[in-house]
Queue: 4 jobs
Job 1
Amino acid sequence: MTAPLFSVRRLGHANLFVSDYMRAKDFYVNVVGFEEAYRQPDNRASFISNGNTYHDFGLTDVTSKYAPPNQAPGLNHFAFEMENEVELVAGYQRALSSGFKFKATLDHDCARALYSSDPDGNEVEIYADVVRDWRAIKTGIIIKEKPKWVPGVTIEPEAESLYPGDFEYRRVPDAVFHAKRTTHVALVADDYEAMFDFYLRVPGLHVATGGRQADITLFRGNIGIGDFTLIRQQNGMKPGLHHVGIETFSEAELRQSLKSAGEAGIAIERIVDHPSRYAVTIKDPDGIQLQFYANRDWPLDSLSGVDAADRPYLL
Ligand SMILES: [Fe+2]
């Protein structure tokens, strides 16, 4: 295998297309348990985080100026974090010289980001934080044009590692669930082998469990605990987003949230109770699956003994 183009640390965020971004914002605050960090009314998008990154989710309205015509709710893109901008730009230049194509390059003020498509057409972002205190920039209502950015050219790349370091997680005390951070995205692959090769070669993920011949693979970044799950399409599963994984603060609290969800009339899609992890999956107002979990004996080294139907909901 040729050397990877990038060497990502971990998943940073998922950006979803939603049918009503303010309704989605209310759900992700009051049910999922993330604070709204900032909002872009001109883009019709809300960004939520408890501190792990400058947004754990972007909630982009299907009528946003960034949405294609007739966009349905679902995955917009998901993003992997790099060590710093110097490494991001080096990967960008390696990619260009190998003939790899990007869809866009964007400067978000606190981070700079590259966008490309995987073999199934899912949009993948690779970015680096360029400001230590993102809350100093990303707060409240933001209406601002993005500066023009040519990687490595228009501005000297930042060599320092500026992802969030020491901070205290915030909480939404009255929420049904208590999200700590978004940690992974799970996709059903149309072309499993091509997708497997892409995620090794482009972001430079590592296989945590599974493989090219397997029905499911869990990948991780350099510091991640499981950042990306690839599921071989079977049994009528639709290719594309399967779920976004959200770590909770503790299993005891997750079990309490499950009770509160019942009282609030929130449907539970699936519970997987496994020695490695306790996982509860629900749907957001647009039917997008969200997996809340608390790890036990993690990482798991084998999927033997896990029911095949449960596997996508465990990883
Ligand atoms: Fe993004």
Job 2
Amino acid sequence: MSPTPQTVPLPALPDGLTFLDIVTEWDPAVSYQDWRPQILVPKTFRPLAAPRTVVLANQKGGAAKTTSTVELAAALAAMSHRVLVIDADPQRAALSAWLLPVYPEGLAAADCRTLTDVFFGDATLAEAAHPTNFERIHIVPSGTTLGRVESDRPVGAETCLREEIEAVRDRFDVVLIDAGPTLGLLTVAAMTAADDVVIPTLASGLDIEGVDDLQDTIDRVRRRLNPKLSVRAVLITVWDKSTVARDMATAMTDRYPDAIVAPVRRSTRAKEAPAAKEPTRLYEPTAAPVRDYDQIARLLLPKAI
Ligand SMILES: Nc1ncnc2c1ncn2[C@@H]1O[C@H](COP(=O)(O)OP(=O)(O)OP(=O)(O)O)[C@@H](O)[C@H]1O
Ligand SMILES: [Mg+2]
């Protein structure tokens, strides 16, 4: 791997910002008008310890999986964690187009290693992990033909990522895998490699139903490939004050009583950040989602060092 170039540090948030209140259960007595966004941290929740591999999964498109991957990576890097993000989306490669990999000088992007090469045995994960413009964040880009993993099913694909991540364990405190909007082989491989699942979801009735299929896949992976996998957080993304957001929060707590359930508030700044090729944390540090992801990151993985 090439030496890390000069990178931009991600700032700690300015003093004086308010964070969301933390509760241990939802209070059904609070009327809708008085309801404010809060984070539910159940009494049974124990913070995670690095090194940790987390998959952000939901087969519903547009649930903010990629956004949550980038913003959590930025929040964790600002806390001094060394973060590796893996773009496991075979369709859009949105992560690789946002946190741009910095390839070794003189090498064309087409000649650089990607996740596709890792699955087909042509590169190790270490060879496919490239620095980004941001201090402490590396990325494994997806590659243009990642979809071939689903069609060609290379030998050992289900466990490939787990073995490869194990080999880079001492270089990264946190590995975040951005799964695509499918429950195919790549998502199964990501879940097999992960310790934890974070489910970003929009607040809508249809999205609640979609979580059943996701849970079936998690159960299947748990039974056959990775018994320790567990859902640690549900993020209710692009959050607006609405009855449906509140119903979603309650439904998710019923389903995942040991998981954090947290809103991530809507902000046009978060929508603009991908085009600026930087996390919202740099683009507009005072935007509400920056605070929300910062708080979620601190709850999930308090800084150990
Ligand atoms: N907090 C937010 N406020 C406003 N817009 C947001 C917020 N979070 C995400 N978005 C927007 O929602 C859209 C979907 O987000 P994103 O691409 O992260 O979802 P995804 O689950 O990764 O989608 P896909 O399934 O296609 O991979 C994007 O346009 C993104 O900018
Ligand atoms: Mg995505």
Job 3
Amino acid sequence: MKRLIGPGAVATMTASGVIHSGGVLVEGDRITAVAAYDELAELYPDAERLDARGAVIMPGLTNAHTHLYGLFARGFAFGASPASFRQILEQVWWRLDKALAREAVHLSALCGLADHLRCGVTTIVDHHASPSYIEGSLDEIADAAEHLGIRACLCYEVTDRNGPAGAAAGIAENVRYLKARRTPALFGLHASFTLSDETLAAARRTADDLGASFHIHLAEGPEDPAHALIHSGQRTAHRLAKAGILRPGTFVGHGVHLDEEEAAILAYTGATLTHQPHSNMGNAVGFPRILHMRERGVKVALGTDGYTPDMLETLRAAATLHSHATVTPSAGVGEFANVLLKENPSLLSTVFQQPIGRLEPNAAADLIITDYHPPTPMTADNFPFHLYFGISSAHIRTVIVGGRIAVLDHRLVGLDEEALSRQAQHVAGQVWKQI
Ligand SMILES: [Zn+2]
């Protein structure tokens, strides 16, 4: 079936720039033409029409690091007053993840993915933990993603914090899921400070056999380099590089506590550093010197760490944080818009083995129709400023992933949100009793 979307200001993210009064023709799961709307309407008179009412049409957004399993922490009174990053893990996240059983894994994923779609996010990279329900947990998330039609790259976080059996079960879940090839996947590891040399070596051997790359947290809090120095005499990135974990295709989250040599190690190994500004500020762990690391050749992507499903808010937070922190008012917007609109999609096009994040023939038909009518002239050059100062998730009206309409006129398609909310609240209540 052919579907013609427009007319609107089509922000192509290609050399074509912004096509005003433009249209996008979608056939199956791909884009087949992007041009002036009237031209496409004449060429394809039989195509089904989707009216964009003259507003901005842009590629779907991507989230390079999140934790869907964290959703049921929302509103729970943990009774905690953590004074450090380690205490945040111990008093909140490691109590929550142990309480998740099959239904909770599935429903937290479904609710979290629905939130992403509402924000125009069509591709996510998740990092999952549910130590009481490991085997099969990634299929529960894949089922939820399939139901909603969102693209998801999954992994299970291996850690030694639940003993040798827990670590072995985590490795087995990654192997099982990577072999099934149901969705793109990475080999998940928690963080250097909860992984022994033996577990790192086992993960490396197993991932090598499967040709997989890793997804791991790196130097998020000061505990990680302290542990690496005490136990291996090296800083965290040295330890992980020597263990063979840092490689092209590996995603490392945060990198807040890295020194100059470690930045060079990231650049040399080709691993991608994901930046989660809300999480770093909320957890009060400091912030990574992203702009400096980009200058040093480190590949950077933007994620959310589960703090929000909203990548436009994440762009605003990142740009504002780094302008403020580097006392350089001009530093942030262009750099982080570039990361969100070009580097995230380029990285994830490799992971998903198809062009995403660009509106051009043969690219995946992942796009957003907004309600945003620019009040000032909009060009490819100033589009980042319309994103930073103008477009918010409230403007996202319709979302298409792989040619399938996932959100239509602000409503999720194929999902009874009231019924889901009732079911999720019931299961969240059970989880809260377990914590
Ligand atoms: Zn994380």
Job 4
Amino acid sequence: MILPKQKNGYCRHCKKHTEQKVSLLKSRGRSATHSLSHGGKNRALKRGRGRGFGNLGKWGSKPAISKFKRTGAKVSKKIVLKFTCKICGKSMLSSHPFRSKRAVFE
Ligand SMILES: [Zn+2]
């Protein structure tokens, strides 16, 4: 997918339409600083999930057949755009992330 390098859009800090630089927001994995991010085991334990008997949803083991079926992984990634205002220098994220295999700036 080809994306524009810059576009005109509404800046909620300047409260008017300004020229904005478009860049990609990279998704980062779980780190030591953000160990309690969504989907983290520590977070689940703190919320009272992820312990006990039986197959507790995702925390239990899955049957072999479903593991076998899970080979077809998604090839596209969710793309979140970051718009940086050229006047005030503040940045905003796109409100509608979309899926795409590859995002290139023209
Ligand atoms: Zn601005």
